[in-house]
Every structure is written in C-alpha cells, then in structure tokens.
Amino acid sequence: MDIAYSVKDVPIRLSYERWFHITENHDDLSSYYFEVLETVEKPNFITRGSKGSLKAVRNMGKDKWLVVIYREISKKDGFIITAYFLDKRPKGDVIWKQS
Fold it and tell me: What percentage of the chain exceeds 70 in pLDDT?
C-alpha cells in the first residue's frame, strides 16, 4: 500500500487490491500507478464528486486528463476510490485550483 497526501495534507491510501480493481476496469491506467498518486498530491484542480468524494484532476497532455476520485474520511485518513482518463477537461464545481 502506498500513501499520497492530499492538498489538505490528509494521507490518502492506495491499496494493491484497489489498484488491481482500478486497472481491471481501466487497463489503460496500468502503467500510471505513480501518476495516480501524484495527481492526488499535485492536481491542477479538484472538483466535488458524489457522496462526499473529491475528484483530483491533472492534465496529461493534449486531450488527456487523469481523474482520481478519492474520499477524505477524517483529517488523518482517506482512500482512493477509482481513477480514469478523459479526453476533455472534466466539468464540475472547482473547489481548489493550483496557483
């Protein structure tokens, strides 16, 4: 298991079981393990997800956006739910933006 620290300095867990689940459904992410963790730590922006989740978004080049959905349970714990690529900038309420 690896941990990334969110922009609020909350440790966000990525277990190997979760990574297996993510890559089983999104095989195009299989070589992007560290990029997923880095997106949580250094996103371009964060939007609100559903049911209290957050979406960390990072531009990976022309028409390629990495979205990592995670949840902060407390100030000391959180976990990654899933991750995927989009071919255009995701929409949604931006609640944090890189300065």
Answer: 100
Which residues, other chains included, contact 51 with Cβ-Cβ below 8 Å and sequence gap of 6+? none
Placement of tokens 């959905």 in the chain:
69
Handedness of CA 75, 11, 28, 25 (dihedral sign): negative
Distance separating alpha carbons of residues 64 and 35, to the nearest angstrom = 13
Smallest CA-to-CA distance from 49 within 64, 30, 71 is with 71
For residue range 17-57, list pLDDT tens digits in order.
999 999 999 999 999 999 999 999 999 999 999 999 999 99
Residue 10: name the closest of 59, 60, 54 by CA: 54
Single-letter amino acid, residue 24: E
Three-state DSSP class for residue 90: coil
